[in-house]
Amino acid sequence: MERYQTRYGTVVNVQSGVMRGVYGWMGGGLALTAFAAMYVASSPALLQAILGNRILLYALLFGELGLVVAVSAAINRMSTATASFLFLLYAALNGVTMSTIFVVYTSTSIASTFLVTAGMFGAMSLYGALTKSDLSSWGSFLFMGLIGVVIASLVNIFLHSPMISWVLSVCGVIVFTGLTAYDTQRIKSQGYTGPKGAILGALTLYLDFINMFLSLLRLFGDRR
């Protein structure tokens, strides 16, 4: 019995350490994104360079996508320093592209939506970390919802339908709220270990947070 308690305590300590690392990296990434977004938004020249040059904007967006794929698919073949740099580079680039929300929405609504998102994310991530229920059954449903949102979003680029945009935002909130709990439990239960495991887990939860935030902002943000 004593041996079991010692081993159990070790597992709990390792998991706690991993989750602290995950949340630490995620918080750092969000802080860097916020700084980059506000810095670019405060510079009319930089903001005009992004909004006035579609090629540059698309290059930034595809660059972000490439970084997510690279970190997710090849993190085991990277050094910790490379993985850290790519994660921070992604967070900074995402801040640059997200600076455009300051043109569309008021600063007050952006700040209030961020706080609401933080509350929702914190509650769902805590649920995912502490619940005894197995959330793995959510995975296929949430993945199908995510694919549906992505495909419909691409189609709506050409349709410009406000109704489709509203429905997609509602679906986005539902999907990414669920993914927050699901991904938290998966990160904790699958034993993401070491600094690189913490970075990969942070990237996963960072994406959940950002997408939940953008979905809520499209629904409730006050436009300029």
From TrEMBL:
Entries under InterPro entries matching the protein:
Bax_inhibitor_1-related
Key word Transmembrane helix present in the record? yes
Q: Name one Pfam family in it.
A: Bax1-I
Residues that span the membrane, as ranges: 21-40, 55-75, 87-105, 111-130, 137-158, 164-182, 203-221
Which organism is this entry from?
A: Geomonas silvestris
The Swiss-Prot or TrEMBL record describes its family as follows: Belongs to the BI1 family.
Recite the UniProt keywords alphabetically.
Answer: Membrane, Transmembrane, Transmembrane helix
Q: Localized where?
A: Membrane
Q: How does it sit in the membrane?
A: Multi-pass membrane protein
Question: Superkingdom, according to UniProt?
Answer: Bacteria
Full protein name: Membrane protein
By its UniProt entry, which CDD domains does this protein fall under? BI-1-like_bacterial
What Gene Ontology terms describe where this protein resides (cellular component)?
A: plasma membrane
